[in-house]
Write a structure and sequence with these properties.
By secondary structure, this protein is α/β, with parallel strands linked by helices. The protein is built from 15 helices and 27 strands. This is Long-chain fatty acid--CoA ligase.
Length: 519
């Protein structure tokens, strides 16, 4: 269960096969391994030792893949940073992870320059571009050119592969400690279940810091296929890249798919090379799924459900289960069956299994389990219980083993495939001078699945302005976490016997008439 084994295997057995395509840059598997080894040598020269954290803040590129494998080769652990986070959130994750080296591209170099003095442990910043390197940063290409490969550190099994930051219930992001074996297992399982082979051409369209893309990246890596990169999602460039590179496998979260299909320049002919379409991160609206399947009748659709704590696979809805008519048509509303090697049970509040058809919390265990949350023993103990990850998602399992998600136990909103923990948003809003109390909930959104909605109790004698509260948040948290709408009230929030705000009561009016209380 050594992640660099995939790279060595592909380079040994398919040395001249195309490994990466990024614009005009094309690398074979042999060339890719050579570059990764040299970059690993540079990292060790810069002081990277076993388990050291090395971060990256960048858009998608072939160098992102090289970074990941070079860090593992050198013995370190990756810290992929969310490109939509604010500077304050990025500083927090760097300091919390105690990252010593940071890779950055031209898009984020100005942001890094603005906060580099606040990143207490970062001693070296490496600029990913070939253009002029900003003062105080090292040249990526120069490091690759100037250094010889080091010996592969051979990290594997329980060794830390990376810290993957996700929203926190305390108002701060928390680092999920993912071991080598967790990613290795997910690569094997997804490669087999989603049809990746050595002839597959996978396009990185979803952000590479996201676990969903990492799983697909590992699957095509395990199979020895080809990686194609677009810097970030944009409907027209995504379509053109699929056509130009004859891409076979694509991962688009439902929001992205909707934007592609509804774009004035959408042309189904550009997708003729596609054989597999994967979706996940948030549920697919049934109408959108039916539209896509009608437009692409020869494409195999597969949905993956999971979370960072499982690195990420929990279940998969296979292509064969994407049935639109007859008794089995209900399955497309499900999150599929448990993935290969993953055990799933539905439990009550005492942790006991409930009968089939009864709603409870999804608990899962597999070789993909996290080690825990970085320096968060209490949160680790609450989530990882006797080897089972408590997902926080409410669901039932039918007699055929399909999972149907109907609610969310954790105070979390999923908007456009991004997880937003209400506590983070409430923390930001609470510092506004006109706010006495605030509760944040997810409400239905046709475009995003769910949108962030705040309910505010103003301080006596003031009338807050909605836009001023939203602008106040933007200085502290990522834009996608900021409320899209705000309601004001004077009545106290409904409370439980323990004094907790009853979010379900606050959410209920917005979800009235819908089959479930999450999207």
């Amino acid at each position: 269960m050594q992640l660099t084994q995939m790279l060595h295997s592909a380079a040994d057995t398919r040395p001249n096969h195309l490994a990466t395509v990024d614009g005009d840059r094309r690398k074979s598997w042999a060339e890719l391994r050579k570059r990764v080894g040299r970059l690993a040598g540079a990292l060790q020269t810069l002081g990277v030792k076993a388990g050291d954290r090395v971060a990256i803040l960048a858009l998608n590129s072939d160098r992102y893949t090289e970074y990941m494998f070079a860090v593992w080769w050198a013995g370190g652990a990756v810290v992929p940073m969310n490109t939509r986070w604010s500077a304050a959130e990025n500083v927090y994750s760097l300091n919390d992870s105690q990252a010593t080296i940071l890779f950055v591209d031209r898009h984020f170099a100005p942001m890094v320059s603005s906060f580099r003095d606040q990143a207490e442990t970062v001693s070296t910043i490496i600029h990913l571009e070939e253009e002029e390197v900003p003062e105080g940063m090292l040249s990526y290409e120069q490091l690759v050119t100037d250094h010889a490969p080091c010996t592969d550190a051979g990290r594997s099994g329980e060794d830390l592969a990376g810290l993957f930051y996700t929203g926190g219930t305390t108002g701060f992001p928390k680092g999920v400690m993912v071991p080598q074996r967790a990613l290795w297992y997910n690569n094997i399982a997804l490669a087999g279940m989603a049809g990746f082979t050595s002839d597959s051409i996978y396009q990185h369209t979803a952000p590479m810091f996201h676990m969903a893309d990492l799983a697909c990246s590992g699957a095509v890596m395990m199979a020895g296929g080809t990686h194609v990169y677009v810097p970030s999602f944009e409907p027209v460039s995504t379509l053109n890249a699929i056509e130009d590179n004859q891409v076979t496998h694509v991962l688009l979260v439902p929001t992205m798919l909707g934007m592609v299909l509804q774009h004035p320049e959408f042309d189904v002919a550009k997708l003729r090379s596609m054989t597999h379409y994967l979706y996940g991160a948030s549920p697919m609206p049934e109408g959108l799924l039916r539209q896509a399947m009608a437009l692409l009748p020869d494409v195999k659709f597969a949905q993956a459900y999971g979370q960072t704590e499982m690195a990420p696979l929990v279940s998969i809805l296979n292509p064969a289960d994407h049935v639109l008519e007859g008794e089995k048509a209900k399955q497309i509303r499900s999150a599929g069956r448990p993935a290969w090697g993953c055990d799933v049970k539905i439990i009550d509040e005492e942790g006991q299994p409930v009968p089939r058809g009864t709603v409870g919390e999804i608990a899962a265990r597999s070789p993909g389990n996290m080690l825990g949350y970085w320096q968060q023993e209490e949160q680790t103990a609450a989530t990882l219980v006797n080897g089972w990850v408590h997902t926080g998602d409410g669901a039932y399992q039918d007699e055929d083993g399909f999972l149907y998600i109907v609610d969310r136990m954790k105070d979390m909103i999923v908007s456009g495939g991004e997880n937003v923990f209400s506590a983070e948003v409430e923390s930001a809003i609470s510092t506004h001078p006109d706010v006495a109390a605030v509760a944040v909930v997810g409400i239905p959104s046709e475009k995003w699945g769910e949108s962030v909605h705040a309910i505010v109790i103003p301080k006596d004698g003031v009338t807050p302005d909605e836009q001023s509260i939203i602008d106040h948040c933007k200085d502290q948290i990522a834009g996608y976490k900021c409320p899209g709408s705000i309601d004001f009230r004077t009545d106290p929030f409904p409370l439980s016997g323990a004094g907790k705000v009853l979010k379900r009561e606050l959410r209920a009016p917005y979800w009235e008439g819908q089959e479930r209380s999450v999207s």
